[in-house]
């Protein structure tokens, strides 16, 4: 009778040990599955898909600090393209300059007002002149805030009888501001100044 009781007790201990091992293993597996699910969810939040020409392209999200140079250069490029790309159409000029002035402070508005008072924009319309800009390079110092930049480009002015190419060098500073539809990068150009805008060449058409 006693050997049978010892066998039952021993079997019960084995069953209890086995059950404890199974429970512990299940808890560890559950914990791993939960951790892995959170990890996959976090990764999925860092990815968005952009539909372009009927194709889904994956884009990876990143912190703003990592994208500062890219976003800042694009902000500077966009501002200069809006400010200097002009056609002999009052609505085109008004639209482009309105967009440009959302991206800069009163220094840009001051230059715009000076050009307007001097008849620059009315001369473009009456003279059937088109003006466009090409970006050569943008130097940005992102080590100090606000961020200093220099813009290097060329300006092409097309008249009915001639075409003039000008050098364009500007400088200014960038500071953070709120993002909006009119200012998607969330930067504002300050103390903007044209340092050089001399003629490079003139050609007859």
Describe the structure.
This protein has 205 residues and is of the alpha+beta class. It folds into two domains: 2-48; 63-204, VirB8 protein (Nuclear Transport Factor 2, Chain: A, Roll), CATH 3.10.450. It contains five helices and seven strands, in the order αββααααβββββ. The strands form two sheets. Strands 3, 4, 5, 6 and 7 form a five-stranded antiparallel beta sheet that branches. The radius of gyration is 32 Å and the shape is rod-shaped. It starts with a helix and ends with a strand. The mean pLDDT is 85.
- Kindly report the average pLDDT value: 85
Note poorly predicted spans: none
Which homologous superfamily in CATH is the superfamily of the largest domain? Answer: VirB8 protein
Give the helix level as a range of percent: 40-55%
Q: Do you know the CATH architecture of the largest domain?
A: Roll
Distance between the termini: 119 Å
Structural domain count: 2
CATH uppermost class of the largest domain:
Alpha Beta
Listing every helix as H and every strand as E from the N terminus to the C terminus, the arrangement reads HEEHHHHEEEEE
Can you lay out the helices and strands and say which pair or pack?
Elements: H1 2-45, E1 47-52, E2 55-60, H2 64-84, H3 90-101, H4 106-117, H5 120-126, E3 130-141, E4 147-158, E5 162-176, E6 187-196, E7 199-204
Antiparallel strand pairs: 1-2, 3-4, 4-5, 5-6, 5-7
Helix pairs in contact: 2-3
């Amino acid at each position: 009778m006693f050997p049978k009781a010892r066998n039952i007790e021993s079997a019960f201990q084995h069953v209890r040990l086995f059950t404890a091992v199974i429970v512990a293993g299940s808890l560890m597996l559950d914990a791993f599955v939960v951790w892995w699910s959170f990890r996959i969810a976090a990764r999925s939040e860092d990815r968005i898909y952009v539909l372009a020409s009927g194709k889904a392209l994956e884009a990876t999200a990143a912190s703003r600090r990592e994208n500062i140079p890219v976003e800042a250069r694009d902000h500077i490029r966009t501002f200069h393209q809006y400010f200097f790309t002009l056609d002999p159409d009052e609505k085109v000029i008004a639209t482009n300059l309105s967009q440009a002035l959302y991206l800069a402070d009163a220094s840009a508005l001051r230059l715009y007002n000076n050009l307007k008072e001097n008849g620059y924009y009315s001369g473009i319309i009456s003279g059937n002149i088109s003006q466009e800009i090409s970006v050569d390079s943008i130097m940005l110092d992102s080590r100090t805030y606000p961020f200093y930049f220099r813009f290097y480009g060329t300006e092409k002015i097309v008249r009915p009888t001639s075409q003039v190419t000008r050098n364009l060098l500007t400088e200014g500073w960038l500071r953070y501001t709120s993002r909006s539809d009119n200012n998607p990068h969330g930067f504002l150009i300050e103390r903007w100044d044209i340092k050089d805008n001399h003629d490079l060449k003139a050609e007859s058409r």
